Fold each of these.
Amino acid sequence: MRKAAICMVSALALLAAPQAFAAKAEKVKIGFVTTLSGGPGVIGKDMRQSVEIALDHLGGKMAGVPVEVIFEDDQVKPEVGKQKTEKLVHKDKVDFVSGFIWSHVVLAARKTVVDAGKFLIISNAGTSQIAGRLCHENIFSTAWQNDQVPMAMGEVLNKRGVKSLYVVAPNYAAGRDMVNGLSRTFKGKIAGKDMTKWPDQTDFSAELAKARAAKPDGVFIFYPGAHTNAFIRQYSQAGMTRTPLYSVFSIDSLSLPRLQEANTTAVLGTYNTQFWSPDMDTETSRKFVADYKKKFKSYPSHYGAQSYDSIMLIASAVEAAGGDLSKMDAMRDRMRKADFPSVRGKFTYGNNQFPIQDFFLREVVKDADGNWTTKIVQKIYEKHQDPFAEKCKMKKTW
Amino acid sequence: MVTWTLVFEQLLNGVQFGVLLFLLAAGLTLIFGIMDLMNLAHGSLYMLGAYIAATVTHWTDSFLIGLVAALPATLVIGIVVEVLVLRALYRRGHLDQVLATFGLILFFNESVRLIWGPAGIQVPLPDFLNGSVDLFGVPYPMYRVTVIVAGLAVAGFLYWLVVKTRLGMLIRAGASNREMVAALGIDIKLVFTLVFGLGAALAGLAGALVGPIRSVGIGMGENVLILTLVVIVIGGIGSIRGAFVGALLIGVIEILGRAFLSTLFELVLPSNAAETAGPAVASMLIYILMAGVLFFRPQGLFPARTG
């Protein structure tokens, strides 16, 4: 009898055991959508390398579970981005989808992730819609909302007494967002504004001639990628260097080595705004930048820093769930607390699950080795929340 | 505020842009007109010229050597492409040629990515080209002046080549009646190869010249190819003179449209509407011009005489 009872108990234990083990996932699968081809492939490369650094720091594991990251190339096309996201969610059965450089791509891919009940961790695209009315409990950003960076620049211009400003930006969604963001805070006069054809136009002779004729106190630009280099070179060739140049999302660790290659000294001493800079004085950022430089022999960009944070945010969620990836609520609660080692130091999440964070003025300088980089000059915004958060219906309960 | 000096400066910008377009259009119009070949890969040779000039400039620290090196390099690449790939296509229809040369675009773009990486290259300029010069009271970038002068010099050289030399005579003869030239015992194959090589070298020169202004990157050839096609349609296929006039016309209209159209619209429209309509209409102007030319003079402004 007693023997039978022992048998029964062990049988039960045996039956129960697989379930107990199953709670802990065998693998944490993360799909990472970015741009790996064409000119913007430089951005994707930086993000990918930063994910590698994050995985190195985690020892390739989250809560003891091995991590697999699957990278996909969106080719800057919304339809491709959506297709790749569907593949990640339905075929690879990833637990998290992360990455996304471009606003229009993430807008196309968003529904696929949300409908499948997975987490979407946006590493760059600061789409106003997703920060506003399309906000969702399973979507987090480790970047910013588009408007915040030019808004900070507007404050800088006011402080520096810039009365008239000439604005040149590409004529597409983000270009218009940047100009609108700037106009939210800039109190001076817009002496002239040119919205150029995107992405075809790389000759700015007509715009520069007009800008010089308008005699502004400063010129404001937004040109992501290779266009920055073309613009700044033509700016200096046109003899405009005495007019201060202010920029957002244009001059960073990806464009500066190229500008240095061409010895475009006009870019030194120019100002831009951002939430982070390679010289950011936080423990995580110092470690991230040092290890990145050691491994890849160059500075990481803000794209990289945000991608590093995406992986660290996911790691904190997996830790909170003890590796059980079915515990969505536990993972969400943890991520909302932003309780992970971020490159920006301590920050909080707003009701739309976009960071409430500081923004800085950065100056382009030479570092100790003679390489061109950006340096933080001063803090412009403290704990700044984006203007679209109020359009998000979620309530902050954390 | 629109002043005369600003208009003058914008005209110069237009001429400079036009001159660059001419370098591309001259080669493409010859290839089209004489060889009856649709060559979409013309922009790739432009890109290769830019990459080669940039690389040699970095090796030798001299922009001039880089510029000069790009010419023979793209000439050779052009000849190799003609002999290996395009020869097989002359007898095929235009659609096959479009498909094959589109394949070449993909091939060259991927090759460039493998060799130079996705990031693109910047070309440093020597100091004497970096500043600006005073042209009738307008401070104008020295380098853009150089581009205008170089482009006009090449135009003069082409005029001499086509009008005064035996090769030029063959080119003109080939443009008006290929079969007759071949029937007279001229090695038309060799003429084709030379014309293609020349066209490639001109595209390479355009690429090398544009490097220090815009940035050198993958796919830079595709955007400019569309404008080049517009130029040769307006100028008349096969006509160098047409390419020259067409290129300057397109260059000046494009720049003046971008510069003054929104100001012009502000006179009649509210400023918000003018701001949106200006750039939109400016980017359409050259296509409107092309449509007009096609409607009233479908053979182009200066058609090559065909028999």
Amino acid sequence: MIDFSILIDNLDTYLEGFKNTILASIIALIGSFIIGVIVAVMRISPIKPLNWIGSVYVEFIRNIPLLIITFFFYIGLPSIGVTLTGFVAGTIALAIYTASFIAEAIRAGIQAVPKGQMEAARSSGLTYLQAMWTIILPQAIKIVIPPIGNQFINLVKNSAILGMVAGLDLMYFGDLVSSHTFVTFDVYIFVALFYLVLTIPLSLGVGYLEKRLARSH
Amino acid sequence: MFKSKTTKIAGVLLLSASMLLSACGKDKETSGSAKNALEQIKANGKIVIGVKYDTRLFGLKNPSSGEVEGFDIDISKELAKDIVGDEKKVEFKEVTSKTRIPMLNNGDIDAIVATMTISEERKKEVDFSDVYFDAGQSLLVKKGSSIKGLEDLKKGTKVLAVKGSTSAINIREKAPETTVLEFENYTEAFTALKSGQGDALTTDDSILYGMVDQDANYELVGGTFTEEPYGIAVKKGNKELVDAINSALKKMKDNGKYDEIHKKWIKSN
């Protein structure tokens, strides 16, 4: 069976990492959502250059491994004089990376709102941005909650990338505990359990929202 | 209804998964063979040795030839020559400080020749041969750095180390005020130092000399502050294999082969 003394003896270490994983996840979650919405709106905007920038962002970022984006912020930026800690570099990379997937989910959601809605809103005198913000996005959000929820779950798990750049997260401290106790397997089972503490409620929450919104339709 | 059912299912799945996983983890350990490790190696006609692939001078994969090269590699070949009878009958597998003990205990490798310090802690996990290399922990800094030795590692300084290495533990004891950041391997730790993510990098001087060899803008400071005798590790309880390794090491030292290998890789300090 699993050796629970590992968890008990190293509880402080685990909790320190758990705290930072939660913090990084929350910051990246908010950041990725904001960037994701902006990029999605750019992608479908009628202004060509914006459209172009949005597409380049999505195609560029989502097709690069997260690890490389993280290394770029951690060891690439210092060459132009910007030094970020592992935590900051990892969290920014996580937000930027996840944003590309969220942007795609939101774009699909916006395009799923019937075209007539936008036309009606524009013809009743709203500007493009007003129509987008007050008419289209509220409807689109309902459609995109399940795919965005999935991205958020991925984000929490992907936050383990911080462990690669000494970002003091759960994975980083898990590595340290395993290397000091020489117990590999049990240590990572506990790491996995801590991730589940975050991802299972997220998963259930998304399921619940999905059901409620389906009813309200 | 929906909620309680889901949690129940999730709970059962989780429990069974963790039991299954921990069961297979233990299985491999207990499946001791009737033959001892030395006989097994001779029967297989080759010895599988875990070495570093990222450590200049000791075990480094040469990208142009695809071969690993270094002090540990040459020592391993000599071991194979003595134990299996042919220096080519050795298979190298990449290990890191983090993976080497689990890989040994899982039976993935027969022995570890990977800049591994003999310590009391590790002796509980594995059996060690005699010392085959004497190293000592030191500090690597950029030339002109204000850090001249251990005493300069005050609050606010950052020291980079490698996960699972004794140097990470030592530096916390010797310089308790400094912040220690640990990386996957020496390449990443050195890259982080070059990017200014830390003020110094600490590990055995032997490995640090390899980094200086690669980039002369860095230098060792403060001398050595620990003794790091390197040993060859085998799975616990394999006295025959330890004896065979020790006798091979002794032969190398007697016939001058050891000095030759030492001279080839390690420049005099």
